[in-house]
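Summary for the lay section of the report: proteins are chains of building blocks that fold into shapes. Here we show the chain for S8 family serine peptidase and then a coded description of the shape we predicted for it.
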Amino acid sequence: MKSVKKRRRLLFCLLLGILFCLSAVNYCLAESTEANGGNGLLITFKTGVTKHQAKKVMKKVNVIAKDKMFQRKGNTLLLRLDSSEMRRQAISKLKKESAVASVQPNYRYTLGETSSSGDSFIDRQWNLDYMDVPEAWDLIDKVKPQALRDEKDKVIVATLDTGVDYQHPDLQKNVAIENCVTVADRESPYPVYGKALPSSHGTGTAGIIAATSNNGIGIAGIAAGNHNDLISLMAINVFHSEGYISQASASTVDIIKGIEYACAKGAKVINMCLGHSEGDSDLFGLPHDDAALEAAINDAVYKKDVVIVCSAGNNGDARIWYPSDFDATISVINTKKYKNAWSRKCKTGRSNFGSSKDISAPGRGVYTTGLNGSYKKGCGTSMAAPSVAAVAALVRYVNPQLSAAEVKEILYSTATDLYKPGYDIYTGHGNVNACRAVAAAAGVSDGLKVPQLARPKSVKAYSAGPHAIKLSWKKVPRANGYFIYRSDKKDGSYHRIKRIRRGKILSFRDTGRKFDKKFYYKIVAYGTTRDGKKALSPESRKVTSRPRAEVPSLKTANRDYRAIHLSWKKSTGTDGYEIYRSDTKNGDYQLIQTISQRRPRSWTDRELTVGKTYYYKMRSYCFRNGKHYYSELSPKASAKVRPAQPAFSVKKVGRKIILKRKESDPSQISGCQIYRRTEERKWRLIKTMPVEKRRFTDRNLTPGKKYFYKIRTYKTVQGKRVYSKTSKVKSRRL
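The coded shape description reads as follows.
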């Protein structure tokens, strides 16, 4: 044991011995990107720190590091740690060490690509990608480089809520603690320092807006930017001591006091996640229409030029909801991590909607800050509204001259369209888009690529009867549906004739077409990108067909070891069929059979070479005015000449399992093979039986185990076995 410890100490000293070089890490050339900072911590020691001092520091870290690797470049040490909890513990300890100049996550970048936030929950913040927030931050850095920024440029944002946990480690950079007050039940604003909060609601909305970015922990607030120097957040508690419980627990007077305090402190954006239905009774049983609150909001918006954002409510209907439905406010609907941006189900089921609602934002399954330094996953319009407020703050940062009305118009006109084109009552103007809004405010290009799906492939058109044409194609990845376009001329214009609303539907039947007239078709897929944007594909290649007899649906099967059985469904408008065969996969097809009747829907190709694969196509024809009109050839169908696929039964009898092969023509097979596996083991051959034996008993099995079986038959031809397809698998548990 002592020798093991000695070797560990020697290894530890050896690793530390290679720590010190001449220069610090060059971030400009750092490559790769990992959003959650999972590659460890960078510890920079102060100039003049000795190896002995460094050893002492690292011994302290070693207490919590189960698995550590050390690399050294200049005065910076890379410490690899297993988990975010280890990183938090290491940061806490290292910041207290006098020998340490700084400690931070190990951010990693790719040359020429945009940077990602180094926060431990950032990979779960899907909502940032749905709103193009990282792209907005990078665009702000280009429009207004960090070196040109000043403290006075920060946009002041206020939240009227249940206050904020100002000691939360992820709310240190962008929250102005000195302006965080409570106005509930007070004549004048009162500082919240040291006060226990009755609810985490306000801390959650604050985190959505202002959580510190690139600090290696938690989440990143939408208005934080890459450098946490864009906004200053003030959290104003307007709720009574019972917290966010009763919908009347924040009074009109207190909300008005909160608005006035925010305006007096220079707020340019106010977020309110609270509400009441029109006509509902207040605490005194009186209708709650609140003209006084509307007047205060109008004063703030129209006279003091403040943007006010409110949650639309979580009742799941189109009821009026105050203050969000006042004309002066921006009312925000809650959307989810949808996979179909063309559906009204982008909206969560519980979010309010209606003609008084304005815009949407992600609000279901969104991570944010909680009390006592915690994090939580929230759901509701209270997660969505602060997202829009944060984007409004970014817009005002890049262009402080914009009026509140202009900010509102930019947010609406640049939103990511959802459901129907333009405004609709379920998603408003669509999901707020931070990058597009910032670009519009700054008067520059947003630099975003137009989302596009893959072009539909294997598009085919073929006759489906005297007055119909059928189209088919392969599924396009991430497609929610398809648009079908038609032209009746080779170089004519195309008109949309059908919208298919399911991405899994891969065919369409165009009926009511004129017999033997040529029609032309194109297909466009529509769908949703991984970050929630609508996308279209390029047009497919042009395909054409004429309505004639329907193309047969051809199938092959083995019923005789020397023959292949062909069958097809009844074809509309058909007077007969032609069958073609090829001896090779890509060879020429020769006509081998003409069936001059409508009735037969099967035919057997006999005297074939055992073990050889044959390929078939067929077409139908109709007879009109003394002329044959042929359909296109059917898709290829193939089969190998071999015995028919066997079937068998299986039953448990005590500690035995009995298999019985279904009876078949003895002349068609020479024998049968039985295979078995368990849940732990692979398939293995357990028995070969002659054709005379159809029954097999599997013995000496383990009670409680599940056994799986399959069989195949064979025919011996000229000394060689030709095997059938394997049967379906059957199982029994002892």
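Put simply, here is one thing we learned. The first strand starts at residue 41 and ends at 45.
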